TrEMBL record:
The lineage of its organism: Bacteria, Bacillati, Bacillota, Clostridia, Eubacteriales. NAD-dependent protein deacetylase which modulates the activities of several enzymes which are inactive in their acetylated form. This is NAD-dependent protein deacetylase. The gene is cobB. Nicotinamide binds at F32, I102, D103. Its EC number is 2.3.1.286. Pfam families: SIR2 (PF02146). Zn(2+) binds at C126, C129, C147, C149. The active site is at H118 (proton acceptor). Keywords: Cytoplasm, Metal-binding, NAD, Transferase, Zinc. Binds 1 zinc ion per subunit. It catalyses: N(6)-acetyl-L-lysyl-[protein] + NAD(+) + H2O = 2''-O-acetyl-ADP-D-ribose + nicotinamide + L-lysyl-[protein]. It is found in: Cytoplasm. It comes from the Bacteria.
Length: 235
């Protein structure tokens, strides 16, 4: 299977990568759905509830406590997957990285064309005046981050109940539609509308790399079970 993937990659100059949380787990960033016993001792609500727009509006203090503890990993570094994708882009083989992650590790690895479907922890804006704030400024303050104007600072991440950026969505769809090879990795393909983008791929080199089964396994032209970094480092 690795040999087949290697052949497709070697022959293509129009690869598009679509990734989820599994791409960053090898960098030490856990999938927040993988909750353990300690999680339920610390939080009274499931992560999907806390990361909803309604919860953010009604319980901002608890939202930011969870956000700082579970979504921000400032010491995380790009892993073999991030580095390989950046290398392919420099070689002119990879056209775009479409990611559901908000950690910015693809850019840290050197990738330029990164479409962040769910936003980024590295961008934060005052809801009142629009002033920009860096991640470090969110980390350095306690409780609800507040702008110098008195407004609340919101991370530029897409919460449940919020819509995706239409421009990012349109560009992602366009890349997928025209891709020669589409590599989908580290995602359960359970979160919509992001997962729905795959239906626009019309090529015959759909590669799925994941540790567990996904709803799209039967549609894959090549299915590889394993860690994305370990798989791509073999190419």
């Amino acid at each position: 299977m690795i040999d087949q993937l290697k052949q497709w990659v070697q022959q293509s100059d129009n690869i598009v990568f679509f990734g989820g949380a599994g791409v960053s787990t090898e960098s030490g960033i856990p999938d927040f759905r993988s909750t353990d016993g300690l999680y339920y001792q610390e939080y009274q609500y499931p992560p999907e509830t806390i990361l909803s727009h309604t919860f953010y509006e009604e319980n901002p203090l608890e939202f930011f406590r969870f956000y700082r503890n579970k979504l921000i990993y400032p010491d995380a570094k790009p892993n073999a997957a991030h580095n390989k994708l950046s290398e392919w882009e420099k070689q002119g083989k990879l056209k775009a990285v479409i990611t559901q992650n908000i950690d910015g590790l693809h850019q840290m690895a050197g990738s330029k064309e990164v479409l962040e479907l769910h936003g980024s922890i590295h961008r934060n804006y005052c809801e009142s005046c629009g002033k920009f704030y860096r991640l470090q400024e969110i980390m350095d303050c306690d409780g609800i981050p507040t702008c110098s104007c008195g407004g609340r600072i919101k991370p530029d991440v897409v919460l449940y109940e919020e819509g995706l950026d239409s421009n990012i969505l349109s560009r992602s769809l366009n890349y997928i539609r025209h891709a020669d090879v589409l590599i989908v990795a580290g995602t359960s393909l359970a979160v919509y509308p992001a997962a729905g983008l795959l239906q626009y791929y019309t090529g015959n080199h759909l590669v799925l790399i994941n540790k567990t089964p996904t709803p799209y396994d039967a549609n894959a032209d090549l299915l590889i079970q394993g860690k994305i970094g370990e798989v791509l480092s073999q190419l």
